[in-house]
Prior knowledge:
Layout: H1 3-13, E1 17-20, H2 26-38, E2 42-46, H3 49-59, E3 67-69, H4 77-88, H5 95-104, H6 106-115, E4 121-123, H7 130-141, E5 151-157, E6 168-172, H8 182-199, E7 206-209, H9 220-235, E8 241-245, H10 247-251, H11 253-259, E9 271-273, H12 277-289, E10 294-301, E11 307-308, H13 316-331
Parallel strand pairs: 1-2, 1-4, 2-3, 4-11, 6-9, 7-8, 7-9
Antiparallel strand pairs: 5-6, 5-10
Amino acid sequence: MSYIDLIKERARLDRKTIVLPESNDKRTLLAAAKLMEEGIADIIMVGDEEKIMDGAGWLEVDLTGVTVINPKTTPKLDDYVNLLYETRKAKGMTEEKAREILLSDNLTFGIVMVKANDADGMVAGACHSTADTLRPALQILKTAPGVKLVSAFFVMDTQFKEMGENGAFIFADCGLNQNPTAEELAAIADSSSRSFKSLVGPKPVIAMLSHSTKGSAKHEMVDKVVEATRIAKEQYPHLVLDGELQLDAALVPSVMKSKAPGSPVGGRANILIFPNLDAGNIGYKLVQRLGGAEAYGPMLQGIAKPVNDLSRGCSWEDIVGVVALTAVQAQLV
């Protein structure tokens, strides 16, 4: 059974309700139909029911069982307006502005549904930027207790089953923080460890990546990863982690033995922490497009309730996978 099939099975055991606000996107409609067919989650779509069903008819997909909420006609609009107003009034929100936003922005409407416990999570980003998806989540749901930084990761399911966790890895941060500081890299490593335990396997092994292994190169970019590793070992001593490491040392035991003998990673990393967003974004797309891996994300870690982003280049199958992962995250909140 593939990684994502195992996740779908976990989602079915305790079905959660996930909001898909991008109801005008055909990939979302196709995904919603498949999610209902496979019993992975209960689905709420935000928008005009007639238009959504017309789209489903054109695509010849069955949305039976999907709940459609039209912000303009829902009897809960006033409650949602009040909730948004109370949550954001210290930042200048008015009731009139809250109503205007909820009637015009399906993503914010979906986030407020999650805030109101009318849904367990939300997935968006097929036709919106990461910033558009993340902004209302941070403003309304806030960060989870004890979390220093919200970050993004991909679950990468590769064909190299002898590596990672039966071929599965977490790559972070590949979608959000552009140039994290050393302390932020350490926090990303800790969050990624918890995400790994929740979604992939019980024994996270973390490599702090660089173009250098243990001093083989000198540069301020290397210094940052060295410092991040020091901070992570000091603040999160439970982590199995090492750095700075080149990718081959992180993944290949014989290379690790040559370049960094005695490292606790041992060439068997299953979490790869990239030094910046350029490296992370390029890295996951190389593994996906040239290596044939399945890439699920960018998943967000550190928000109080599950909200996950999608690449705008995603397929409907990708949406199904991210919804399944979001449902499993919701089981653990």
